[in-house]
Amino acid sequence: MPDDFWENLSSLASTELALYNELALLVQKEGECVRSGDIDCLLSILVEKQDVISRQELVQEGWNTIRAGFGLSEGRDGPVFWEKVAALLGPDGTDDLKASLAVIRDVAGSVLEEEQKVQNLLEEHVADLRKEMLRLNQGKKAVHGYYKSGGSF
Questions:
Q1: Does the global pTM surpass 0.90?
Q2: CB environment 46-62: b (16+ within 10 A), e (fewer)
Q3: Element of type H or E holding 46
Q4: Residue among 43, 1, 44, 53 at smallest CA distance from 23
Q5: Contacts of 99 (CB under 8 A, 6+ apart)
Q6: How many CB atoms lie under 10 A from the CB of residue 20?
Q7: Cβ–Cβ under 8 Å, residues 66 and 97
Q8: How far apart are CA 54 and CA 50, in angstroms?
Q9: 28-51 pLDDT, tens digit each
Q10: CA 41 vs CA 20, 24, 65: distances in Å
Q11: Residue 19 above 80 pLDDT?
Protein backbone atom coordinates (compact mmCIF):
# COMPACT_ATOMS: atom_id res chain seq x y z
CA MET A 1 0.00 0.00 0.00
CA PRO A 2 1.42 3.41 -0.91
CA ASP A 3 2.01 5.73 2.05
CA ASP A 4 -0.45 8.26 0.68
CA PHE A 5 -3.28 5.77 0.02
CA TRP A 6 -5.54 7.13 2.77
CA GLU A 7 -4.76 10.71 1.74
CA ASN A 8 -5.68 9.90 -1.87
CA LEU A 9 -9.01 8.39 -0.84
CA SER A 10 -9.70 11.24 1.55
CA SER A 11 -8.84 13.78 -1.14
CA LEU A 12 -11.22 12.12 -3.60
CA ALA A 13 -14.02 12.15 -1.03
CA SER A 14 -13.47 15.77 0.03
CA THR A 15 -13.16 16.95 -3.59
CA GLU A 16 -16.32 15.10 -4.53
CA LEU A 17 -18.22 16.64 -1.61
CA ALA A 18 -16.97 20.13 -2.51
CA LEU A 19 -18.12 19.63 -6.11
CA TYR A 20 -21.58 18.49 -5.02
CA ASN A 21 -21.84 21.53 -2.75
CA GLU A 22 -20.80 23.75 -5.67
CA LEU A 23 -23.37 22.03 -7.87
CA ALA A 24 -26.05 22.59 -5.21
CA LEU A 25 -25.39 26.34 -5.31
CA LEU A 26 -25.50 26.36 -9.10
CA VAL A 27 -28.80 24.48 -9.16
CA GLN A 28 -30.20 27.03 -6.69
CA LYS A 29 -29.01 29.89 -8.97
CA GLU A 30 -30.42 28.04 -11.98
CA GLY A 31 -33.84 28.06 -10.33
CA GLU A 32 -33.54 31.79 -9.70
CA CYS A 33 -32.62 32.36 -13.36
CA VAL A 34 -35.62 30.33 -14.54
CA ARG A 35 -38.00 32.14 -12.17
CA SER A 36 -36.75 35.53 -13.34
CA GLY A 37 -36.77 34.49 -17.03
CA ASP A 38 -33.14 35.58 -17.39
CA ILE A 39 -31.91 33.43 -20.27
CA ASP A 40 -28.37 34.87 -20.18
CA CYS A 41 -28.10 33.94 -16.51
CA LEU A 42 -29.50 30.47 -17.24
CA LEU A 43 -27.02 29.84 -20.05
CA SER A 44 -24.14 31.04 -17.86
CA ILE A 45 -25.19 28.71 -15.05
CA LEU A 46 -25.49 25.78 -17.44
CA VAL A 47 -21.89 26.39 -18.58
CA GLU A 48 -20.73 26.51 -14.96
CA LYS A 49 -22.64 23.31 -14.18
CA GLN A 50 -20.95 21.56 -17.10
CA ASP A 51 -17.55 22.55 -15.68
CA VAL A 52 -18.47 21.07 -12.29
CA ILE A 53 -19.78 17.90 -13.92
CA SER A 54 -16.52 17.57 -15.88
CA ARG A 55 -14.54 17.84 -12.66
CA GLN A 56 -16.84 15.26 -11.05
CA GLU A 57 -16.00 12.90 -13.89
CA LEU A 58 -12.30 13.33 -13.09
CA VAL A 59 -12.98 12.43 -9.46
CA GLN A 60 -14.93 9.39 -10.61
CA GLU A 61 -11.94 8.37 -12.73
CA GLY A 62 -9.84 8.55 -9.57
CA TRP A 63 -12.21 6.16 -7.79
CA ASN A 64 -12.19 3.89 -10.84
CA THR A 65 -8.39 3.86 -10.87
CA ILE A 66 -8.37 2.66 -7.26
CA ARG A 67 -11.06 0.09 -8.06
CA ALA A 68 -9.04 -1.17 -11.01
CA GLY A 69 -5.93 -1.28 -8.81
CA PHE A 70 -7.81 -3.69 -6.54
CA GLY A 71 -8.73 -5.75 -9.58
CA LEU A 72 -12.44 -5.27 -8.88
CA SER A 73 -15.34 -4.80 -11.24
CA GLU A 74 -17.55 -3.16 -8.61
CA GLY A 75 -16.96 0.40 -7.55
CA ARG A 76 -16.82 2.19 -4.25
CA ASP A 77 -20.50 1.58 -3.60
CA GLY A 78 -19.95 -2.14 -3.31
CA PRO A 79 -18.99 -4.04 -0.17
CA VAL A 80 -15.99 -5.79 -1.76
CA PHE A 81 -14.36 -2.42 -2.48
CA TRP A 82 -14.62 -1.46 1.19
CA GLU A 83 -13.39 -4.87 2.33
CA LYS A 84 -10.23 -4.22 0.29
CA VAL A 85 -9.88 -0.71 1.73
CA ALA A 86 -10.43 -2.00 5.27
CA ALA A 87 -7.76 -4.64 4.73
CA LEU A 88 -5.31 -1.87 3.85
CA LEU A 89 -6.34 0.87 6.27
CA GLY A 90 -8.02 -0.89 9.14
CA PRO A 91 -11.54 -0.15 10.35
CA ASP A 92 -10.91 3.40 11.66
CA GLY A 93 -9.71 4.84 8.35
CA THR A 94 -12.36 2.94 6.47
CA ASP A 95 -15.18 4.10 8.74
CA ASP A 96 -14.14 7.74 8.27
CA LEU A 97 -14.22 7.36 4.50
CA LYS A 98 -17.56 5.53 4.57
CA ALA A 99 -18.99 8.36 6.69
CA SER A 100 -17.71 10.89 4.15
CA LEU A 101 -19.36 8.98 1.33
CA ALA A 102 -22.64 8.85 3.26
CA VAL A 103 -22.53 12.66 3.47
CA ILE A 104 -21.78 12.82 -0.27
CA ARG A 105 -24.78 10.58 -1.00
CA ASP A 106 -27.03 12.84 1.11
CA VAL A 107 -25.82 15.99 -0.63
CA ALA A 108 -26.09 14.32 -4.06
CA GLY A 109 -29.65 13.25 -3.24
CA SER A 110 -30.54 16.81 -2.24
CA VAL A 111 -28.99 18.15 -5.45
CA LEU A 112 -31.02 15.67 -7.51
CA GLU A 113 -34.23 16.65 -5.72
CA GLU A 114 -33.55 20.36 -6.28
CA GLU A 115 -32.56 19.68 -9.88
CA GLN A 116 -35.92 17.98 -10.44
CA LYS A 117 -37.74 21.00 -8.99
CA VAL A 118 -35.80 23.30 -11.31
CA GLN A 119 -36.59 21.00 -14.23
CA ASN A 120 -40.29 21.21 -13.40
CA LEU A 121 -40.01 24.99 -13.08
CA LEU A 122 -38.20 25.13 -16.39
CA GLU A 123 -41.02 23.20 -18.04
CA GLU A 124 -43.51 25.72 -16.64
CA HIS A 125 -41.51 28.62 -18.07
CA VAL A 126 -40.37 27.02 -21.32
CA ALA A 127 -42.63 29.17 -23.50
CA ASP A 128 -41.28 32.40 -21.97
CA LEU A 129 -37.70 31.17 -22.26
CA ARG A 130 -38.22 30.20 -25.91
CA LYS A 131 -39.48 33.70 -26.64
CA GLU A 132 -36.41 35.16 -24.92
CA MET A 133 -34.06 32.85 -26.85
CA LEU A 134 -35.79 33.79 -30.11
CA ARG A 135 -35.41 37.47 -29.24
CA LEU A 136 -31.68 36.97 -28.50
CA ASN A 137 -31.22 34.96 -31.69
CA GLN A 138 -32.92 37.66 -33.76
CA GLY A 139 -30.69 40.27 -32.10
CA LYS A 140 -27.59 38.28 -33.05
CA LYS A 141 -28.81 37.93 -36.64
CA ALA A 142 -29.43 41.67 -36.79
CA VAL A 143 -25.89 42.38 -35.58
CA HIS A 144 -24.41 39.92 -38.11
CA GLY A 145 -26.47 41.46 -40.89
CA TYR A 146 -25.38 44.93 -39.87
CA TYR A 147 -21.68 43.93 -39.96
CA LYS A 148 -22.08 42.10 -43.30
CA SER A 149 -23.58 45.22 -44.82
CA GLY A 150 -20.46 47.17 -43.81
CA GLY A 151 -22.03 49.04 -40.92
CA SER A 152 -20.25 50.01 -37.78
CA PHE A 153 -21.37 51.00 -34.30
A1: no
A2: eebbeebeebbeebeeb
A3: helix 39-70
A4: 53
A5: none
A6: 21
A7: no
A8: 6
A9: 999 999 998 888 899 999 999 999
A10: 20, 16, 36
A11: yes
